[in-house]
Amino acid sequence: MCATILLALLGVWNAAGATIPQQNVEEQNEFFERYWGTEFEWRFDELPTQGTVPEYRVPYSGYIYPDRSGGTVVMMQKYDRAFHGGQFPATAWERWDNSAYDKPTTQRGGLFGMRQTTVMQTPHWHGHCNGWAAAAIRHAEPQNNVTRNGVVFTPADIKGLLAEIYIYNEILHLAYGGYRMNAGLFHAVITNWLGRGGHPIGMDADPGRERWNYPIYGYAISSARRSDREVVVRMNLVSARDTNREYQQSPRYSRTRQFHYVLNLDSEGRIIGGSFYRDSSRIALLWMPLRPKPGREPGNERGNPHLDIDEVLAIWRDSVSDEMRQKWPVIDPPIHDRVLNKDLLTGLIPVQDPYGTAEPEQLADANDLVELPASNDPSESTENALSN
Fold it and tell me: Within 10 A of 112 (CB to CB), how many other CB atoms are there?
């Protein structure tokens, strides 16, 4: 009874902790073996307490291209002028897609706002945030103008093209469940993919109806043992933030979210489950973007079919240096990047230098990115940082 009361006072959602479903365990093992060629680590003591990417790989802050503001229509018009000879199929598709998911919206109007009317309107949060997040994870920020068929694509234009090819492209679902996401799975995914692998991760930050996606690139944790089978953890997780427009050279805006949870371990110290405390931030999904596929084809069935994926990627390659591409491997790379990356994703790499290429002064220290809590006291409250 006393233990139950204590846990209730601490604000834990589930005293016993939720067990990670076996299907999720098998998925993580299979995904990590496929893309890293090594085993996923479940032992708590073997997982890094912090992880980050080199400074040059901190994801750029990009624009979400709201549907209500036209999405990526401006970039589609440039693409059509360069590749479709005066026809505008990519532009027409984007305009259609911007209004394809209109929903009834009640508004007040008339004298003193007394009259109610219902209009078909796209929700304010519809846009390309997941497209930007995927592009910022998989691609170095474009640096130079690129000309195709007399049309100049600036770095801002190229970032818009990248956001468009990823908006409906397939992803790996790493941890999901919204308010029911398992804290043990959450911890294991972050510390393996970002901590051991040094690879940024996509995050759907809102467990509710809206969807707001951001690229995660750093974390730091502190922990306190409650027993041999339970560990209380605080994690500060840093992600890039979006901007109010697209920039030729993007700023690096960031946000830190605080998580507070208890992990359940088995007799060998492996994570088998966990629960979030009530004062913890919560997110809907952790995901990993995969290689872009052509629109209307498997893996991107809802994507714009009038964009040549190889052409868009070639424009991006011409906008960055080969040196940067060599330092920028990703899982599931396109064929043109596999030669550069083939020796870099063959095994796990040190947390502080994920690709073995950075000079010491280039590395971003996770303690600079995410300030650790001052106390390991599991009863200490943390601020819920989750919002749009």
Answer: 7
